[in-house]
Amino acid sequence: MRITEEELFQLMETKFLKAGLNKRDAHYMSDVLTFADARGIHSHGAVRVEYYVERIVKKGITREPHFEFTKNSSSVGIFEADNGSGQAAAALAMEKAVEMAKETGVSVVGIRHMSHSGALGYFTELAARNQMIGISMCQSDPMVVPYGGAEAYYGTNPIAFSAPANNGEVITFDMATSVQAWGKILDKRSRAESIPDNWGVDKEGKPTTDPYKVNALLPIAGPKGYGLMMMVDILSGILLGLPFGKHVSSMYEDLSKGRDLGQLHIVIDPSFFTNIQRFTETVSQSMEELQGVKPAESFEKVYYPGEIMKLKREEYLENGIELVDNIYDYLISDKLHHNQYDHKNKFAE
After folding, report:
1. Domain boundaries of the chain, sorted by first residue
2. Catalytic residue among 44, 116, 265, 337
3. What would you measure as the largest C-alpha separation in the chain, in angstroms?
4. What is the pLDDT along the chain (349 residues), one digit of tens a residue?
5. By the 8 A CB rule, do 39 and 313 touch?
6. Distance from C-alpha of 340 to C-alpha of 174, rounded to nearest angstrom
């Protein structure tokens, strides 16, 4: 099934509004999910809608949250999210971070007590499209084994980075600190596909290719990914006075409760360091040079970070966004949810 960005956005927004979410937050939530699907990041797109709807209906996402922003200094702020939409909170907090960075050259904004916010690249690109460098990271519930461990402690704890280039282009890097995000497992389940054997392990700690047997995920690059998970956990959890590590709330355990998650935005204005035109031109030059690097055997070419997402969006703009039939059928249905996520384990089982 292929549909346009506009149709996908409208279908998702309609679901969120019917679930009782306010118009502003339904817009941001739908926009972030559409951003993901339109770039081929289906793990963070429409596959998540029914989960969000069930949590909204059961009041685990505040329908009319009281957002509050406090500037603790000229370049540091805290955004209290009242367990409202993580997408709305993260987007609005990024707007504040950009405003502050324009004045001081750099800003750091922490978001407290928020819901799951989705694809972080959406928020860092908000900064890049304002001629800023954007960095964002957030904690997630424990489902990754620490290097050398046999049980989960940290979450997938993603990091994203975006920088502006010439002519409105951006370079973006968005990754989980696990080999793959849990949403990738969900996506493979929805498509009835197997997974590579280095994504996760089963209950015995052995590699598995069955997405339904995954009991824990693996960190990228062994101890290096483990260290990055620790960094993200401290900066988006402990630094903000929130639960950390294995104490971070489960996505599925109780959908009637807020998740109290944390996220950290860092924004840098390049004009405080160098000429902004020279900066964007040089970023563009690096992107072009990367494309010209001789590819290794079995590779067709070298892509700059974020280029594959850009190409996927161009394809989808022409041919429509690829959506699995059962997700489309849910979006066009009158059913809000099928009560399938509440009181499940960390893998929605």
Report:
1. 2-272
2. 116
3. 55
4. 899 999 999 999 999 999 999 999 999 999 999 999 999 999 899 999 999 999 999 999 999 999 999 999 999 999 999 999 999 999 999 999 999 999 999 999 999 999 999 999 999 999 999 999 999 999 999 999 898 887 899 999 999 999 999 999 999 999 999 998 777 887 888 889 999 988 988 888 888 899 998 888 999 999 999 999 999 999 999 999 999 999 999 999 999 999 999 999 999 999 999 999 999 999 999 999 999 999 999 999 999 999 999 999 999 999 999 999 999 999 999 999 999 999 998 777 7
5. yes
6. 29
Query: Which residue type does 208 have?
Result: T
Residue with tokens 């022409």: 318
Q: Which residues of 130-143 are buried (b: 16+ CB within 10 A; e: fewer)?
A: bbbbbbbbbbbbbb
CA pseudo-torsion sign 177, 182, 185, 190: negative
Rounded Cα distance between 96 and 79, Å, is 9
Is 116 one of the catalytic residues?
yes
Structure tokens at 43: 């793990």
Token code pair at residue 130: 């304002």
Domain 2-272 CATH (choose: 3.40.50.150, 1.10.1200.10, 3.30.1370.60, 3.40.640.10): 3.30.1370.60
